[in-house]
Design brief:
96% of the residues lie in helices and 0% in strands. It is mostly helical.
């Protein structure tokens, strides 16, 4: 096997290796894109859940405000009743008991609101972490695309080198054939000259 053929074989082997690398890079890019899409869908679902939690929290806040208003009204009614007559003291006591119950209910609402706020903060922290993970996935995707582009450029360069090697080998073969034809022509001319000298 000549040096040119060895070189051509090495170039073909390199081309095959570059193609394998390009296929691996392309598969990694597809996997990164799929992972990024899944992260986007998960993030959208969590955002929707957080929005629903915020709506529920706003409704509970409005209910708590209404409870405060009712409590204030009940206390005012109790004071008015007590001022009107000592005999209405029991009614005032009942009102106070009801006010205390409403206060306890309000405290429970506020405690639940505090818990939900902590959950929302935890969700926000998780979303921030997922955004960072998404950005990392996008960076990996871009790197995979760059690797794929580089592999394709290397493959194109290897193909051009193989074409140049093949062209050089063809040119050298043509030159060898021309030299051989020239030598044959010179040999025939020499033989013809000898024949002529021999016939004279």
């Amino acid at each position: 096997m000549t040096a040119d053929r060895l070189e051509a074989k090495e170039i073909q082997d390199r081309i095959l290796a570059e193609r394998c690398q390009a296929q691996v890079a392309q598969q990694r890019a597809l996997l990164a894109a799929t992972a990024r899409k899944a992260e986007d869908e998960k993030l959208e679902a969590e955002n929707a859940a957080i929005a629903a939690a915020r709506v529920s929290l706003a409704a509970e806040q409005r209910a708590a405000a209404a409870a405060l208003l009712r409590t204030a009204a009940s206390e005012e009614a109790a004071r008015v009743a007590q001022a009107r007559s000592e005999t209405s003291e029991e009614a005032a006591r009942v009102e106070r008991v009801r006010a205390e119950i409403e206060y306890r209910a309000l405290a429970e609402v506020e405690a639940r609101m505090a818990v939900e706020m902590k959950l929302i903060e935890a969700d926000n922290a998780r979303i921030a972490s997922e955004i960072r993970a998404k950005e990392a996935a996008e960076t990996e995707f871009k790197l995979a695309e760059q690797s794929l582009s580089s592999a394709r450029e290397k493959e194109d360069a290897a193909i051009r080198a193989a074409n140049m090697t093949r062209l050089r080998a063809d040119t050298e073969a043509q030159a060898a054939r021309a030299e051989q034809a020239k030598l044959q022509a010179e040999g025939r001319a020499t033989a013809l000259a000898r024949q002529r000298r021999a016939s004279t």
